[in-house]
Structure formats: C-alpha cells, structure tokens
Amino acid sequence: MNLISYIGKYFLFIIEIFKKNEKKIIIYKTTIDEIYNLGIKSISFVIFVSMFVGAVVTIQTTANMEGSWMPRTLIGYATRDAIILEFSPTIISLLLAGKVGSNIASSIGSMRITEQIDALEVMGVNPVSYLIRPKIYAMVLFNPILISLSMIIGIIGGLFAVILSGDCTISEYVSGIKYSFVPYKTFYALVKTVLFAFIISSVSSFFGFNVKGGALEVGKSSTRAVVYSSVMIIVSNYILTQLLLS
Amino acid sequence: MVEIINLSKSFSNNKVLNDISFKFDRGVTNLVIGKSGSGKTVLLKCLLSLHKIDSGEIKFDGLNIKNISNKKLRILRKNIGVVFQGGALFDSMNIEENIMFPLHMFSNLSFNEKIYQVNKCLKRVNLINKNKLFPSEISGGMKKRVSIARAIVLSPKYLICDEPNSGLDPYTSILIDNLLQEITYENNMTTIINTHDMNSLMQIGDKIMYINNGLLVWQGNKNQILDSTNHELNKFIFSSRLFKKIKL
Prior knowledge:
heterodimer, A: 246 residues, mainly alpha, 9 helices, elongated, B: 248 residues, alpha/beta, 6-stranded mixed sheet, 4-stranded antiparallel sheet, 10 helices
C-alpha cells in the first residue's frame, strides 16, 4: 500500500469508527475496561520514567548554569517549563505509542488472524466501532490524567535530584516552580495530549485491523503502528505548537 | 432454505467459484465437500457476505443478499449462527461471556435470563459447569462446542460451520457431527457444513455438494455417494484403502 492509499483508508476507517451501531451501555462498559487496560496499567510505567527524566532535566539545567550569574531559582523554573511544555506531553506520549500502541495493534491483529473479527462481523456487530471506539475514548479521556501525573512526578523527580546533589535549596527550587507560572501553557500541553492519544489509539488500531496473514504480519503491524504513531505525534506537535504558542 | 444461483467469485485472475447453483435445504445437514483449496471456505465466506461475489445470487429464504443494504445485512446476520474453523472464541472472555455476547448485543433480557440461556446452551453441548474457564484453558473439542453454543444462543434460522471437526480426534469429531445434526433437527435450521472429513460425510451427509476446482461436480446424499459413478468424486472420497474396501 502506498502512502496516499494508507491515508485514504485511514480516514475511511475513522469515519467507520464513529458510526453509532452498538448499544451505549456496551460501549460504556468496554470503555471502562479499556481505561483499565490502556490507562491504569500504564501508571507505574509513567511514574517510573517521569521520576528519572525529571531528575535528569534538573541535573542538566543545573550543569548549564554552573558558575553563571543566574539565580538558582531558575533551576525549578526551567525544569517546570521543560516538563510541562515538552517532556510530559510529547516524550511520554511517544513512549506510550510504543507501549500502548503496540499492545493495541497486536491485540487487534491477533483477533483478525484468529477470525474473531470475522465472528463479530457475521454476528451483525460492527467490529470497527465495537472494538476501536472504546479504545479511543479511553485513551482520549485518560491520557490527560496520565500526562498530568507525569508532570507532577517529573517535578518531584527534579526536587529529589536537587536534594541529592545539593545544587540549590528546596525553597529555591519550589520558588522557581512557582515563578511566573502561565496556566495557558498547561492548557496547551493538555490539548496536545488529547490529540496524541487520538493518534496513538486510532493509528495503532488501523494497522492492527488491517493485518492479513499470520503471526509474522501481526508483529510487522505492531512495528508499523509504533513508527507511524510516533511520526504523526512529532509532526502534529510542531503544527500544534505553531498554532497555539507562536 | 439458502439458495445460490450461478455464483462466481474470483481473486485477481484466479476463478475460485465458477457458476455454482445449489439449494441448501431447511431441517437437514447440508455438507459442502472438496479438496483443500477447492473453494469451500470462499463459498461460505460469500454466503456470510465476508467476500463480495462477482456474479450470481445468494438467497436466504428468498432474500437476495447481493445488493442488500448494510442495515438489512446486519438484521439477517443476527439469524445466522457461525462456527469458525478455529472456534474464533474471544480470548479476553470466559466461556460464559463468550456465549452471552450475542445476547448482550442483541437482546433485552435481564442478566438472570441471559445466564439461564447460556446454561441451557452449555447443557446442550455437554459443557455444564465450565462457565468460568477461558478459551486458553480448554481443549480443541471443547472450543468447538463452545463455538456451537455461541452460534445457537440466539436460536438462529441458519447455522454455518467451517470445518467444525478439523484437528479433532475421530471420536470427538463424531460427537461434534452428531451434535450439529441433532441441533439442526431440533430447531429445524438450515445447516451448512464445510468439511473434508469422510466420517462426517457418512455420518451426517443429508445433502451433499462436491466442489472441485471451483465447479459443482456432484450432488446427492450419503446413501447415494457409495453408488456414485462420478470419477472425480470417487477419486476424492475413496482415496484411502479403507474407503476403497467400502466401495467394493
């Protein structure tokens, strides 16, 4: 399939997802299950990564300020902005594209090759809508929560780094965190996370759903899902930043 | 009754089904037989509208599905129970949830009524008290029986089975065959079974169509098959020493 064909099929796929055929209660229950599978189960991963990267961002900021005239409060300030603007929404979403995206693509792909999707179809269930809409709802609803958590944990990770290194006092770091806070930047970050969540869930589902062949193809579709989701996240990150921040 | 009229289907330049006409009768087990790659599964997928046909007609009790709207097709599909070759059970659901799934989607029964229906179907396929097991925890034969239970839970008018006893031992195969035949008679369904198992053929072949290279080569029943003079059919059916002896 060439790129234009992929794009066309992807948009037709998106239209099919939002055709309302199934009972609302079924979609609601499945969405709750997906929030658990795709969201809740990612919390420990997000906490772990955010804690360490938050600490690294703080250490690097401190290293770049070594011997300069700048006040030490800027360590907290720079850490906060780096985490809220870019690290949490974009980098965590890229990591989730790997974790959640490959999970979605491989689970739907496996259903395809074991005829479970055919079974849904011949039962009169719209498999696209039934399987994929709850995943998109779950990701779009829960990703902002995950990313908000990542922001908090990242900043706490920075605090631990400061305490361990002694580069600045806790009060200096906390003052820097509070300094010149612009709530719009958090809004911008959360808007990005909603879009990224949609990209991860829909692109991964698209590749999983269109698997043809056997187990090898399921593996390939997972790889494609992660690659294309990541590329789309990077490109849309640039476009959204241009639109919302410039 | 399901009727196919001058049905043709090809993939690229490969003609898999060529101008086939046949009537699958109600209340009997209709068997589609043929070698691997002869077009049996393609025929079933055409019947289920999973493949679009090139030409011809498919009629479910007079309803032509060739140019049917998606809405009407969904309604029709609720009347078709399907048993897939591998069972196609949902991995994430246990046996009870698998069988209850069509009830969740298409009925307004209370939970207790659904449980009653599930247990009734499980009893019918001899799987009492296995409700909470997952597909990964049960044998191939049990998977097929769960698949049959799921297919009949909505009391469909049509039952379509793609090689329901493939990969099973001869004893379990016969159990599955007998079960399908009994369910067909009890519910007066139009049952279409795709198989290349000779035991099935002799056991439940009320009406048989033999396809070879996409063509309908022979039709009849299990009693007529022994006396058939069709060379192609005899080559296929009586290829083993055991069946050659039976023929003699």
